[in-house]
Amino acid sequence: MRFEQKGEISMEKKGASVGILTFHCSNNYGAMLQAYGLKHYLQSRRIRTDIVRYEPVYMTGRHWWIPYSPIKGFKGKIWGILNMWSGFLTHMSMRKDFLRQRRNMSRFRFRYLVDKRKRRVLFDGELQRLPYKYYVVGSDQIWNPDITCGLRKAYFGAFENKWKKKVISYAASFGGPKLDSKYDREFSELIEHVDAISVREKIAIPYVEKFCGKEVIAVLDPVFFLEKEEWRKIEIDPERRGFILLYITEKNDDMEEYARRLSCDIGLSVIEVRATMVGAYADFEVDHGAGPSEFLGYIDKADYVVSNSFHAVAFCIIYQKKFLAFSHSNLGARVRNILEIHGLLGKLCDLPDYGAVDWQRAREQIDAPVDWDGVKRKTKEQMNFAGDFLMRNIVR
Known about the structure:
With about 400 residues, the protein is α/β, with parallel strands linked by helices.
């Protein structure tokens, strides 16, 4: 699929340069794959693009042997200490898998995202020395203070730099429709530094527009810039065939039970891919060591996918899989948004709609036929719009 933009020009010849500020340093499948999607797209338009090696401790610390998150407040510090202790014990108990996962994450990061030879940027003050004219902040939940331990200037381009010409947000997300009111004043000041604004969830537009006085649009996550044939070039196939893939970003007993029932019904085993300590309590086969390439391989080769992960659902759409999505308790707007855009709300097992899981209905949902040609047309239309937004804002 070629996403065409009107008046497309070669920015490389004009000497333009783009630096992406995003979550590339997070050992998270979706974070790394969306970073790849955005970088790949801009480079395919012949725009000289780097992902900035902005790797602050508040993002990388959670992946250390002893996890660290600089959460403010007395309760936050107590939680942080408990998390450090429990995380260390967990990592030690599964140290071989933990090391394998770290290797797979690092391999992907340095092969596809950043140049290992370039110096890491650990502190905001170092951003003023970067050479880029244009900064694209996003995608992912870069404006979610629960993830970044408070709102961070870097992800708004709110730093002094004599070469900086423009800041563009691409598919930036809060994870929901708005921030807690305690962040309103700070957000209103930071958003002024963003010259062109796009968010990932349409439901977030009113909140952003209230503070910025600029047009705000909603665009799809950058993983949709690539078709499945392009993603297959970087995936690593699992050895297994004939399985149900389960991927959990928030504990959900109903989702686990659904996977178990589906397994019994169709006679396929469940493989759970787990990037964090969050997972099912059920006795499923678990792969603790998969990186982003392995994650793609699991989705591509699974017979069925069951998940409450935004990016797992996104790749089910890209790979045209049989899947069922479950809602996340406080981040469910993300999944609902991409399903609604693609006309796939029937693939959402949204418990509040009927109180408890209707197992027969849910069983029918996952096997319900899909007009994948129609879905692909919707993706292309959305990504042409998104690409045009980027191209008209990255100009000399």
